[in-house]
Amino acid sequence: MGVKRIYQKLKPTSRCVMGKTYFVSMTSGSCDCTEADFEWYRKVVSNNCTAGVSVEYTARRHQCPIQAPKGLHLVTSEGTLTATLGTNATFLVFLEEGDGAKTSITLDFGDGHALTYSNVSSIEDGIKHIYKAVGIYRVTATGENSLGSETVTLYLHVTCPLEFIHLSAPFVAVRNKEVNLTAVLWPSQVGTVTYVWWIGNNTEQPVITLEGSVACTFSREGISTVTVQVSAGNTILQDRKSIAVHEYFRSHLLAFSSNLDDHNPDVAEWRLDVSRVIRNSLIQVKPPRATGVGEDQLLVTVLPGLPTAAEFFLLPDKLLTEGKAEKTSAHLDQLSEVLLGALNQNLVQFTLRPGVQVTVYAAHLSAAPLVDTSKSHSGSAMLMLLSVVVMGLAVFVIYKFKRKIPGLNVYAQMQNEKEQEMTSPVNPTEGTAGSQRDTVHSLEILDTELNSRPREVKWSGHGVNDS
């Protein structure tokens, strides 16, 4: 269709026969297009016409009008709002409406770094960025051309894998007294973290916090269990501690010979084993005239870190003290003195391994401060301290300027008179009168000489020096 063919054929009146070598020639060519060759401004399928009216029906390219960017989108390549610290985070930016070739894209990663691209097509493979710190970052993408701009925001949570948690809690607590529970994370900064606490007997309704510390009280004596779960990203870790709750107890810090630090790997299992060994060593201390420490009355825990330190807790024996406060306190004081006496005499030792003998000591705390910081005595303590300072200043002034105080001269005169009386000649009257005149005369000469002597005043950074 749309093609014309030209060929030769015999006339109807010819009676000849075509020979074997005769070839019928035929030529083909395109026809000029007419309106019949088009349907709704489109050439009919399989139509091969050319020229004619084809120019009028052929589509023409026109420059589209520039539009302001509209429908800007910003997502991560994985479709999530999280990224791992130290790895590539890939961002995808695309535009629904607008001239992508003439619309520039600026991507601000929220950590002080930003990139600008001349058009959208140049970032089809995504934009990669590595974050160097955990946190929540406000990532913004801005598309802009001569007719306007559009901005879209994404909040990205950059996290670090949580490796280990440790629940820091007291081993012994006083009943109805507030204690602090703290969950220690490693590494310390892992991003957004949720803490779930099960405290004591409240195992059905946990406490959910965003902080790693909570305060609580225990109303019942006995062993209470605290469990904490830490959720960071796709990781959930848990730790649990048991706390002995009592009305009264005694505690004291322990120190060790320096050779223990050489064998301390600072791991929880090692601390637990050494705590048991120390506890057994303390239980073996038998006072001559007192009841020894029972197995249920003594708790020992080795503290994390170096140098190695520990703490022991003495718990009351309610069968022996009949639950009375006076007997309980006296009994605990008695046991505490027995153990401290044995520790101070280097009687508590244990063998860590063959050839390694460790001695346990009572840690000596620093002395109490001079000023009482309690509210009820702070005023009197400060008054006492102020009195000491004033007295010291008064002594300094008297010592520095004693030559100008008449009372001291009179006292010196009286002392000289007494000395003259003790060394007087046989005739007391003549000796006394002469000595008085000589003393008075010499004192007057001394005062006159001191007053007439020039005084040198020196200035230094610490004040005035009078000499």
Automatic annotation (TrEMBL):
Residue ranges occupied by any PKD domain in the UniProt entry: 92-159
Spans annotated as Disordered: 419-441
Keyword Transmembrane attributed: yes
UniProt keywords, alphabetically: Membrane, Receptor, Transmembrane, Transmembrane helix
Matching Pfam families: PKD
Segments crossing the lipid bilayer: 381-399
GO biological process: post-Golgi vesicle-mediated transport
Keyword flag Manganese: no
GO cellular component, one term: Golgi apparatus
UniProt protein name: VPS10 domain-containing receptor SorCS3
Organism of provenance: Liparis tanakae (Tanaka's snailfish)
